[in-house]
Amino acid sequence: MKSIIRWAGSKRQVLAKLRPYWPDASTRYIEPFAGSACSFFALQPKSAILGDLNKELIQTYMALRRDASLVLECFKRFPRSKEEYYKVRALSPSTLSSAEVAARFLYLNRYCFNGLYRTNLEGGFNVPYGPPKKDLLNFEQDVVAAAAILKSATLLTADFEETLRYVRKGDFVYLDPPYMVQRRRVFREYLPRPFCASDLARLSGCLERLDAVGATFLISYADSPEARELLKPWGYRRMCVRRNIAGFVNARRRAVELVGSNKQKAIADAN
Length: 271
Description:
- Helices cover 38% and strands 15% of the residues.
- The protein is an alpha/beta fold and 271 residues long.
- The protein has a single domain, classed as Rossmann fold, CATH 3.40.50.
């Protein structure tokens, strides 16, 4: 099952490389930087916790889980054109029902440039129009299927540290945080406040606590001095990914990320 959401930094293209780390579906799965949750949808665990600071994203997942058919009904009411896109973008979520908030989120995600999620300092979505060249096939069926899978998940609008307080022994935790890289700009930010050095320090402390409690974690991060320092206490390997943020196809490039885990065997098996 693929995620129904387009997302900058999604691991959709490298799921096969991450699969050796995953436990079986009976293990509780926790993802504190959920985003498009593509690994969650691929794994389909029997129990999960998905957290993210993006309120509209989590509201969308909640509305889909509650009534996917109503969300789709609202989605179909939005006309497909550049002019109408900007009218929908201008709508305030505070004036909409929960199903309409979800429908608007899916609509903007589907027809915005490169599937980006970015807000201004006031929290308003501000990505320009730029629909995919190929229409998404079986979208309605995929939405219904995703809604069914989401029924296994507890959904939290929360900081990653708050989400990780629910971790217990035996859980599997996947972390794909926004990247804080000093020497170059890596576009992974989508909220007004960027992920910063203090967040990276908090994340390092969380990894130590996860290991101490007896949970298994997997973390992916842009190859950088910051990542090597973060993952130095644990095993890690390099992984090639494709960046799809650039506006022109020939400007898009392959990049390297580090994948780390507190289970050395998992690293060895993946290699």
